[in-house]
Design brief:
The protein is an alpha/beta fold and 324 residues long. It is built from nine helices and nine strands. Strand 2 and strand 3 form a beta hairpin. The chain starts with 28 loop residues before the first strand and ends in a 5-residue tail after the last helix.
Length: 324
Amino acid sequence: MIRDLSHLMDIPLPLTEKHSTGSKANDARCGYVAIVGKPNVGKSTLLNHILRQKLSITSRRPQTTRHQILGIKTENNVQTIYVDTPGMHATQKKAINRYMNKAASSALVDVDTILMVVDRLTWTEEDLQVLNKVIEAGRPVILVVNKIDRIKDKEALFPHLDMLSQKADFKAIIPLSAQHGHNLKQLEEQVAALMPKGLHFFPEDQMTDRSSRFLAAELVREKIIRQLGDEIPYEITVEIEEFRREQRSKGSLLHISALILVERDGQKAIVIGDKGVRLKSIGKAAREDMENMFDSKVMLSLWVKIKGGWSDDERALKSLGYDH
C-alpha cells in the first residue's frame, strides 16, 4: 500500500537533521553561505524566497545568473550572507562562460557553509562535477533537493534521497520547493545552526552589496530573456548609462537609461521588434519591477547597440562589469 506522503510539503524528511541554535538574544552569529549547483536548478529562486524579496533575476533558461550576488538576511541575532552563483557547467567555449564558472567556483572560498542545489530526482555528471568542487572546498554542506512539488510519484523520493546520502557526508539533505516556500524554514534553521559566532558585517536593513545600477541592468536583462526565450542567444548584456533620482513634491522620480548590447544586426532587430513593439514591452515590464524594487516612479529609456564579439573578449567583459 502506498504511504500518505502529503506531509513531504510541510515537515523535514527522515534524512533531515533538526538543529537549534541554542543562542541567547545577545549571542550574535554571522556567516557566509554559498549557493551552488549546475544551471537551472533554482538557486536564484531559492535566494529570492529566503529573502522574501526579489533580488536575483530568474527565468526558465539555464545560465540566467552571470554574477555572484550577495543576499543578506538578518533575523534576530543571526545574519546570514547568501552568495548566489552562476550555474557550474562544463562548456567553456567563450570568455563569458569561463567567467561564470570562475564566479561560481570562487564563491566556495572562505564561506562558512555551502548549499548544493540539485533538481528533483535527477543526478547527472554535471551534479557530480559540482559535488567534487564542493568537497574540495572542505566546508559543511547541506544538500538541497529542489522542485519536489513537481515530482508526481512522491514515493520515488525516498530511495533517491538514500542514494544521495551516500554521495558525501552532508550535514543534512533537505527536499523543498523554493518556488512555493515548502521546507524553507527547516533549511534556514539548519543554516543558522552552522553560522559561527561573531558580529554582523552589515546593517540589519541591508539586503545586498550590489548597487542600484547593477540591479536595474539585471531587471532589463531578465525581461529580455523571458520575452524572447530561444529567439535570442546568450550574447546579450545590459549597461546602465544614467541612473539619476529627481526629488519631487510627490515623491521621487528615477531617470534610468539602459543600453542593450548585442553582437549582430539580426539580434538587434529581434530585440527591437516590429515598429519597436518588443522593446516597448521589455521596457514596460522592467519599469514596473524597478518601481517596486526602488519604491519610486521610474522613467526608463532603452537603446540597442551592436558590440561585436563582446562575450568572448576579456577586455570588453571587464569594461561591462564582469570583473569579479
